[in-house]
From TrEMBL:
The keyword Isomerase applies. The keyword Protease does not apply. GO terms for molecular function: isomerase activity. This is Ketosteroid isomerase homolog. Pfam families: DUF4440. Residues 61-171 form the DUF4440 domain. It comes from Granulicella rosea. It comes from the Bacteria. Keywords: Isomerase, Signal. InterPro entries: DUF4440, NTF2-like_dom_sf. The lineage of its organism: Bacteria, Pseudomonadati, Acidobacteriota, Terriglobia, Terriglobales. Residues 1-19 form the signal peptide.
């Protein structure tokens, strides 16, 4: 029962924080190191460093997310699993929940040489006590099929961050959903 209350608290925090952003009209910008040009998916990347209204908490979460992404780009699945709390939860599109860092590590076994997972934070919200917050954005996974043809999966993600008693920040919840295919992609023939 305490686990359900924790998850319910996280989700209600995320809902309330995103509702506040929608009501105030404040759109939290993207990757702090971007140029403002569209990425490969056509998403415009705006630097939060040019936005004077961002709080230190939001900037901290964006920086954490950037470090997380950089570690995973270099270290693959092993680096991905290292960022989670012991009791973390991963929710992926159409799959059962993965509960706990050890279970996450057992499933996150990809090598960055064969599968490259990248993502760009598009927004963040820090909780009022500055010990929990979330980021959200766009991800892209690239690999090759058995014939050497590129496979690209894209979608949206949300990461819930939690500050641990020693001061370190870890991922408590990671949720993602694949984007719908482009119109006509469902029926296209493979390219030779």
């Amino acid at each position: 029962m305490p686990r359900m209350r924790t998850i319910a608290s996280i989700l209600s925090f995320a809902f309330c924080a995103s509702a506040t952003t929608r009501l105030t009209g404040q759109q939290i910008p993207l990757n702090p190191f971007s140029s403002g040009a569209p990425d490969s998916g056509g998403h415009v990347l705006i630097s939060p460093l040019t936005q004077p209204t961002l709080t230190p908490g939001v900037l901290q979460l964006m920086e954490l997310e950037s470090r997380f992404a950089a570690d995973v780009a270099k270290g693959g699945g092993k680096a991905f699993a290292a960022w989670f709390t012991d009791d973390a939860v991963v929710l992926n599109n159409g799959k059962p929940p993965v509960l706990g860092r050890s279970a996450i590590a057992q499933q996150a076994v990809w090598d960055p040489a064969t599968y490259q997972l990248t993502w760009t934070p598009q927004g963040a919200q820090m909780g009022p006590s500055n010990d929990m917050g979330y980021t959200w954005g766009h991800y892209e996974g690239k690999a090759k099929d058995n014939n050497g043809q590129p496979i690209v999966l894209t979608g949206r993600y949300m990461t819930v961050w939690k500050k641990l008693p020693g001061g370190a920040w870890k991922v408590s919840l990671e949720a993602s959903a694949n984007e719908a295919p482009n119109a006509g992609d469902c029926c296209a023939l493979p390219k030779p």
